[in-house]
Specification:
Shape: globular
Number of helices: 11
Largest sheet: 5 strands, parallel
CATH class: Alpha Beta
Number of strands: 7
CATH topology: Rossmann fold
Length: about 260
């Protein structure tokens, strides 16, 4: 059964994540908490499907200000597949030298910021370039990538280096080479990719650990609450007030951030 294969294979990945990545998550969470406590950002960037974990971490229920996903639409929105914003363009642009550097010129970065770059393969030019460029500005960098896949792959970046080789720390998604998990007889390749799920798990675990470390520092932030449930008028009012507080804090932090 295809579904059972997927659950079994991903359960193995989940167990490896929990067992192998806790120490690195704890260390990176200290960096993230320091950035947020200083009124700066944990910046999150990915291209293609690696943009999904960035979108998943903020803004959404359970998230809090201080996270700032960078979404470059032409390298992250591929739902049309063909035509305008098509997959061919995305696959081309994420390998173009200079595009990541150009994108970063929109932002007033600070050495107190933390940059998280997500790439399952860790070989595309744009993500590597983003990491290298922000390091020049004094930022710490974190890769979320599959070490198994990346070590078996060739970098498209002019340095020949892969993402895990240029970042200060690496959070391994523990994904197998090739991303997809399930073999189906009669099909030429495996199906059912899981790197987006693994990347989101790692990033949400980091967000949870960062929240804990912020409270240990005495930093209290508004949290985006669940708002699509049956509530009393008093509960609805409290939820609306918290949503407003999240948006106000986000607006305060991002004022002047764009050039």
């Amino acid at each position: 059964m295809g579904a059972k294969q997927f659950y079994t294979r991903f359960r193995e990945i989940f167990e490896r994540l929990e067992k192998e990545q806790d120490d690195v998550i704890a260390e990176v969470a200290e960096w993230a908490a320091e950035a947020i406590a200083c009124d700066r950002f944990v910046l999150v960037f990915g291209t293609g499907h690696s943009a999904i974990p960035a979108m998943d971490v903020y803004p959404r229920i359970g998230s809090y200000p201080g996270w700032l996903p960078i979404h470059e639409l032409c390298t992250s929105y591929i739902a049309t597949v063909l035509g305008n914003q098509g997959l061919r363009q995305t696959m081309f642009l994420e390998k173009v030298d200079g595009f990541g550097k150009l994108m970063l010129e929109n932002y007033r970065l600070d050495p107190r910021d933390l940059m998280v770059v997500i790439s399952n393969s860790g070989v595309n030019t744009m993500g590597i370039e983003v990491a290298l460029e922000v390091k020049k500005q004094g930022l710490k960098t974190v890769a979320i990538t599959s070490l198994e896949h990346s070590r078996a792959s060739r970098s498209y970046h002019k340095t020949g280096k892969r993402l895990f080789e240029v970042c200060d720390r690496t959070l391994d998604t523990c994904m197998p080479q090739g991303d997809a998990l399930v073999e189906i007889q009669g099909l030429p390749y495996k199906v059912a990719a899981a790197s987006s799920i693994a990347g989101s798990l790692v990033l949400q675990a980091l967000a949870a650990e960062t929240a804990l470390k912020l409270t240990e520092r005495g930093v209290s932030l508004p949290v985006f609450p669940s708002h699509n449930a049956k509530m009393s008028p008093e509960e609805e009012e409290a939820v609306e007030a918290m949503v407003d507080a999240v948006l106000a804090e986000h607006a305060r932090r991002t004022t002047g951030f764009l050039k």
